[in-house]
Design a protein that fits this description.
This is Alpha/beta fold hydrolase. Keywords: Hydrolase. One of its GO terms (molecular function) is hydrolase activity. It comes from Nonomuraea spiralis. By secondary structure, the protein is of the alpha/beta class. The chain has a single domain, classed as Rossmann fold (3-Layer(aba) Sandwich), CATH 3.40.50. It is 43% helix and 17% strand. It has an eight-stranded mixed sheet with strand order 1-2-4-3-5-6-7-8, with helices on both faces. The longest helix has 25 residues. The chain starts with a strand and ends in an 8-residue tail after the last helix.
Length: 290
C-alpha cells in the first residue's frame, strides 16, 4: 500500500500536520501522549480498507508547532482542532472518531460540543480523573508531578507520574524487564527522538490541563448513544482505566475491553485494530466483566 498523503492545516495558534489514507467514510484518529499520528501506524493501513483514515499530530507536538511554545493548553482548543479537521475532510457529514488517552479527552469534548459531526466516538481510557470519587488524591498526584518537574527535571517527574498511574498495591519491581530490541530503522529511531523531545511539553503542559478537565456529564448522557467507552484488558484498576469504566457505569453504557493495557494500540496493533474495525463497523458494544 502506498504511504499516506501528508497535509498541513492552519488553526488558531498552530499548524497541524495530518495524514490521510484510504477511501470511504471518514475515520478521524486522535492520538494521546506524545505519539502523534505515528501512534496509529500499526492499525491505519488496515482501517483504510473501509475508511478514509485521517490521523494527526496534536498541536504542540514537534511536527505541529505552536506559534507560541509557551501558550497554555486547553482541552477545548484541542477539540476544536479535531473539529477543524472534520470540517476540512468531511464537510457537512458526521464522521467516525477513535481516540486514545489524552486524545480521548479531546474526543469527549468534541462529542459534547459538536455532536452533529460525530457519528460514533470510541474513547479508549480517557484519564478524566475528576469524575472519580477520589479525585482529590489525583489532584495531589498532579501537583507532586509538577513540583518534581520544577525542582528535579523531566525524568524524576515522569517517574512520579508513572507510579501514580499504577493500580494500588502494584510493586514497580513486578514490572517485567524490557527485552532487548532489534536495531531500529531510521524512521523508527526518528519517531523515538520525537517522542522523547515532546515529553517536556506533554508532562508540563498537557497532563496538568487535560487531567483537570471536567466533562459535562449531563451532556454526555444525552449523546451516550454515540459513545463507546473502552479500556485495556491488562489495565484494570490502573488510573487511566478507572474513569472510562466509571463513566460507562454512570452513563449506563457498555464497555469494550481492547487487548493489552493503556498502550495496547502499540503493543497489540493487529488485535487492537481488528476489534476497533469491528466496533466501528457494527457499533457492537460487547460488555466484558468490569
Amino acid at each position: 500500500m502506498t504511504g499516506p498523503t501528508i497535509g498541513h492545516l492552519r488553526v488558531d495558534g498552530a499548524t497541524l500536520r495530518y495524514e490521510v489514507r484510504g477511501n470511504g467514510p471518514l475515520l478521524l484518529l486522535i492520538p494521546g501522549g506524545t505519539g502523534g499520528a505515528a501512534a496509529f501506524d500499526g492499525v491505519a493501513d488496515a482501517l483504510a480498507a473501509d475508511h478514509t483514515v485521517a490521523s494527526y499530530d496534536p498541536r504542540g507536538l514537534s511536527r505541529s508547532p505552536l506559534d507560541d511554545p509557551g501558550e497554555p493548553q486547553r482541552v477545548e482548543q484541542h477539540a476544536d482542532d479535531a473539529y477543524r479537521l472534520l470540517e476540512l475532510l468531511s464537510p457537512g457529514a458526521p464522521a467516525l472518531v477513535a481516540a486514545c488517552s489524552s486524545g480521548a479527552i479531546a474526543g469527549l469534548h468534541l462529542l459534547t460540543t459538536r455532536p452533529e459531526r460525530v457519528e460514533r466516538l470510541v474513547a479508549h481510557e480517557p484519564p478524566v480523573v475528576e469524575v472519580l470519587p477520589d479525585a482529590a488524591e489525583h489532584r495531589a498526584l498532579l501537583a507532586r508531578v509538577q513540583d518534581t518537574f520544577r525542582r528535579e527535571g523531566l525524568m524524576p517527574a515522569a517517574a512520579v507520574f508513572a507510579a501514580g498511574l499504577r493500580r494500588p498495591g502494584d510493586d514497580p519491581a513486578d514490572v517485567p524487564a524490557a527485552t532487548p530490541q532489534p536495531e531500529l530503522s531510521a524512521e523508527a529511531a526518528a519517531r523515538v527522538r520525537r517522542t522523547m523531545g515532546d515529553m517536556p511539553y506533554f508532562l508540563g503542559q498537557i497532563v496538568p490541563s487535560f487531567m483537570a478537565y471536567v466533562p459535562d456529564l449531563d451532556r454526555l448522557q444525552e449523546v451516550s448513544g454515540r459513545l463507546v467507552l473502552a479500556g485495556g484488558t491488562d489495565s484494570r484498576g490502573e488510573l487511566p482505566y478507572r474513569p472510562a469504566a466509571f463513566l460507562a457505569e454512570r452513563l449506563g453504557t457498555s464497555f469494550v475491553h481492547f487487548p493489552g493495557g493503556h498502550t495496547g494500540l502499540s503493543t497489540h496493533p493487529a488485535e487492537f485494530g481488528e476489534l476497533l474495525a469491528q466496533v466501528l463497523r457494527s457499533g457492537e458494544r460487547s460488555v466484558v466483566s468490569r
